[in-house]
What does this fold into?
Amino acid sequence: MKLSYKRTFFVGLAFMSISAFWQMYDSITPLILKNVFGLGDTLQGAIMAVDNVLALFMLPLFGMLSDATKSPLGRRMPYILGGTAGALVFMAMVPAAVMSGSFVFFCVVLGLLLLTMATYRSPAVALMPDVTPKPLRSKGNAVINLMGALGGVVTLALLSKLTPESASRNYFPIFLSVMAFMAVCILVLLWRVKEPEMVRQMHEESAAAGVDPDENAAEEPEAPAKAAPMAPDVKRSLVLILLSVFLWFMGYNAVITHFSKYVQVYWGIEGGGFANILMVATVSAVVSYLPAGFIASKIGRKKTILGGVLLLAAAFGAAVFFPGFTPLIFVFFALAGVGWATINVNSYPMVVEMSRGSDVGKYTGYYYTFSMAAQIVTPILSGAVLEFLGYAYLFPYGCLFVALSFFTMLTVRHGDSRPTPPADGLEAFEDM
It folds into this structure.
């Protein structure tokens, strides 16, 4: 059974576009709130949490809506195309709102933008498992995350050149550049992805390999896939891995949300200097996604995730000892990128492994609900820490929550996949 890299690449363009946007949003919005509107860190954190409040309710909703959608374009594509079109319209209005100096106008436009982004994230992510046989989903997710990271690299490259100085209000160049990249991704997606045909191919490939695409891995093999409820121990594993997702996003998102300000305030680096540091982490993640999938195929998803958690916690912990910028920080951010890639490649497949083929969108929504819930809490909580305790506490905060996720992940017992050791080269990824 072989993964179609061509098919997965084109499907992954949706996630690449989304990742490009969120890289810009997480980096630029805090700078706008601080430098243009003069807000404190706690209030900034509250505003940065709004998108996740929306997502908490909308991601499961639109995941389930897309599960039930029937159209000539498929279940997911109508949401991806419509959501992207709406997002591009409101993205064009954000820098105009910044230039106007009206905080109310800015908040309205930003709210509408976040609303449109929330309508298609779950369908975009669920498209990959829809067209990928179950045994290949970790490998497929590695490719998807690789493409997402590449989207982030493109945005960071743009940020390093186009981020204005703190005194400037001109954010048109960076927003328009990211919009152009997103538009190209979606146009190619529309051109090359025929969702119904790809789903049919997935069913044919699964049948040829003796794999039931609608089988719930959590059920007994002889039980009817659509009738048997999830076993209590499997429910426990599902809750624990979702709690782990919550905890490592609590730590990781705090660093990502505040890092552009941290570099400016704590290290005294203006403009797009922060983007060069984040690019090191992102590039290291890019080169780690496929190896992380390979390692999971050898030792299992759970052990691989635990290793990534330890690496990420260690990298954040090491950053505590650098009160000023030093080239060594690039090393620790590279390690953080490896750790985060290792976690991302394998955690989402562990969740959807417990789903049926008919409700992948719902379980995708569960995954993102817990990650979004963390990202509601942590911008506000970490913002308060920075405002009242100081910027020196950013990395200790991140390290603490990532470390806690190690202990919840230890107790997960389901959703793993450990097939026969694979062959060498690209074939090594096929049986994940």
